[in-house]
């Protein structure tokens, strides 16, 4: 087998491992890729990533512990290169109110250092949604992997949030979405006089 054929075969193996779920959670650990592809597995992933970019996809690396950059323990996923638009979200079976509830939940968790009690999150969500809807949205987010729930009802960031979401962009969007203060009659009169 020529060198080009070997690389082509390794690209196929890497793509298969990344596209098809073989564990409870999607993605593949670095050590698994190293085991199948050899010690230069990162070069194979770079080549595959280049090909995936043409399709609007990318390989994303998520480190288990952000203080450690150990590639063998990291998890590799295939994600979109660009965020979904509103029309993409609607066609992918997400309701706008469900996305809003998820954004609120994640912003609460992020703002509290990565953990928040289920009770606190539900309390805030219930100011915008009926209780049954708020509970349903949380359960869906847990099932889909965006949020983890511990036995003592503490919510934390799930694997899917780490892979699909840019925390800084979410918080920036939430800050920018703040409603402008309503103008009083005095403000309106001053604007018309100018």
CATH structural fold name of the largest domain: Arc Repressor Mutant, subunit A
- Roughly what is the average pLDDT, rounded to an integer? 83
Can you say what the CATH homologous superfamily of the largest domain is? MAGE homology domain, winged helix WH2 motif
Which H/E pattern describes the elements?
HEHHEEHHEHHEEHHH
* Total DSSP helices: 10
The total beta strand count reads 6
Radius of gyration: 22 Å
CATH level 1 name of the largest domain = Mainly Alpha
Structural class: alpha+beta
- The helix content is 40-55%
* Number of structural units classed as domains: 2
Task: State the major sheet.
Answer: 3 strands, antiparallel
Low confidence ranges: none
Which band does the percent of strand residues land in?
5-15%
Strand order of the largest sheet: 1-3-2
Which features does this protein show?
194 residues; alpha+beta; Arc Repressor Mutant, subunit A; 2 domains; three-stranded antiparallel sheet; elongated
Structure description:
There is one protein chain. The chain has a 3-stranded antiparallel beta sheet with strand order 1-3-2. A 3-stranded antiparallel beta sheet has the order 4-6-5. Helix 1 (3-19) crosses helix 3. It is built from 10 helices and 6 strands. The mean pLDDT is 83. It has helices at 3-19, 30-37, 41-53, 86-91, 96-111, 118-125, 131-143, 159-164, 167-176, 185-193, and strands at residues 28-29, 57-62, 75-80, 115-117, 147-149, 154-157. It is α+β, with helices and mostly antiparallel strands and 194 residues long. The chain is elongated. The chain folds into 2 domains: 3-80, Arc Repressor Mutant, subunit A (Orthogonal Bundle), CATH 1.10.10; 86-176, Orthogonal Bundle (Arc Repressor Mutant, subunit A), CATH 1.10.10.1210.
């Amino acid at each position: 087998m020529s060198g080009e054929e070997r690389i082509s075969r390794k690209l196929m193996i890497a793509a298969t491992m990344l596209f098809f779920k073989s564990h409870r959670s999607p993605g593949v650990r670095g050590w698994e890729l190293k085991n199948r592809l050899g010690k230069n597995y990162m070069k194979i992933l770079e080549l595959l990533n280049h090909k995936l970019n043409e399709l609007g996809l990318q390989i994303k690396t998520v480190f288990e512990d952000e203080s450690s950059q150990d590639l063998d323990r990291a998890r590799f996923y295939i994600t979109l290169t660009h965020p979904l638009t509103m029309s993409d979200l609607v066609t992918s079976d997400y309701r706008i109110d469900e996305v809003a509830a998820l954004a609120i939940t994640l912003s609460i968790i992020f703002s509290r250092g990565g953990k928040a009690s289920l009770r606190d999150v539900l309390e805030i969500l219930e100011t915008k949604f009926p209780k049954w809807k708020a509970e349903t949205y949380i359960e869906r987010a847990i099932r889909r992997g965006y949020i983890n729930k511990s036995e003592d009802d503490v919510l934390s960031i799930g694997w899917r949030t780490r892979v699909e979401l840019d925390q800084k962009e979410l918080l920036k969007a939430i800050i920018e979405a703040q409603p402008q203060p309503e103008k009083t009659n005095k403000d309106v009169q001053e604007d018309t006089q100018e």
